[in-house]
Amino acid sequence: MVARQLDEQIAGRFPVGQRLRVLDVGMGQGTQALRLARAGHQVTGVEQDPKMIAAAREELAREPEGIRERVRIVQGDGRDTGVHFLPGSFDVVLCHGVLMYIEEPDPLLAGLARMLAPGGLLSLLVRNGDALAMRPGLAGDWAGALAAFDTTAYRNRLGLDVRADRLTDLTATLAGIAAPLHAWYGVRVFTDTAVDGAEIPADVEALLAVEERAGKTDPYRSVAALLHLCGVRG
């Protein structure tokens, strides 16, 4: 879903065929970075975890030389982008699944916005702090659901204590760092309770169509497990 939503935003903002300069902060094993490199873009990935970097390099090594040449991997903290790159160096900056691990995300976000060229796109994927009661509630964990209404803290599926973000708060933050919210989507509206490693259903295309529609439609997107926010640098 995130890939579809991101492609929609890129197509609506940049000329067809333009080779974009992409920064993927917290690139993990490089799923989005490699996908965008295959599409012809120049991608720089920043990742702190050596295991994730090793996995990304292993995946990259399987790609043709032309794609390998379009990907650069930098080991570092996403909060230190100013150390590695000049302001305005990128057309697109991704920060997916990172903010939940950062106690004070505003400095990170401000740094990411500075990396964008004018008109550049900032793509954030965060846990939805307005819908934390949905997962325990749908699982019948009534005590957990009640507790989730009054907090943005939660324990993720890895057993880590992390945090969520509210749409209103991030909207204000993006406006304050000169990358105001342009569009937002819900991700995992109906599928958040699926267990990890669940078998892909035979009707997966229908499932994706439903999730894609719900992710753009009120009120469904408001209760999604994740929010995908897209800001544009002024």
Which SSEs are present, and which pair or pack?
Blueprint: H1 2-13, E1 21-25, H2 31-38, E2 42-47, H3 50-61, H4 65-68, E3 71-75, H5 81-84, E4 90-96, H6 106-115, E5 116-127, H7 134-138, H8 142-148, E6 153-155, E7 161-163, H9 167-176, E8 181-187, H10 204-214, E9 226-232
Parallel strand pairs: 1-2, 1-4, 2-3, 4-5
Antiparallel strand pairs: 5-9, 6-7, 8-9
Protein name: Methyltransferase
Organism: Streptomyces regalis
Domain Methyltransferase type: 23-123
Compact overview of the structure:
GO terms for molecular function: S-adenosylmethionine-dependent methyltransferase activity. This protein is an alpha/beta fold.
How does this model look, in words?
The structure is a single chain. The longest helix has 12 residues, at 2-13. The strands form two sheets. The protein has a seven-stranded mixed sheet, with helices on both faces. The protein has a single domain (1-233), classed as Rossmann fold, CATH 3.40.50.150. It has helices spanning 2-13, 31-38, 50-61, 65-68, 81-84, 106-115, 134-138, 142-148, 167-176, 204-214, and strands at 21-25, 42-47, 71-75, 90-96, 116-127, 153-155, 161-163, 181-187, 226-232. The protein contains ten helices and nine strands. The mean pLDDT is 96. 35% of the residues lie in helices and 24% in strands. It is globular. Strand 6 and strand 7 form a beta hairpin. The two termini are 26 Å apart. The chain has 234 residues and is of the alpha/beta class. Keywords: Methyltransferase, Transferase. InterPro entries: Methyltransf_11 (IPR013216), SAM-dependent_MTases_sf (IPR029063). It comes from Streptomyces regalis.
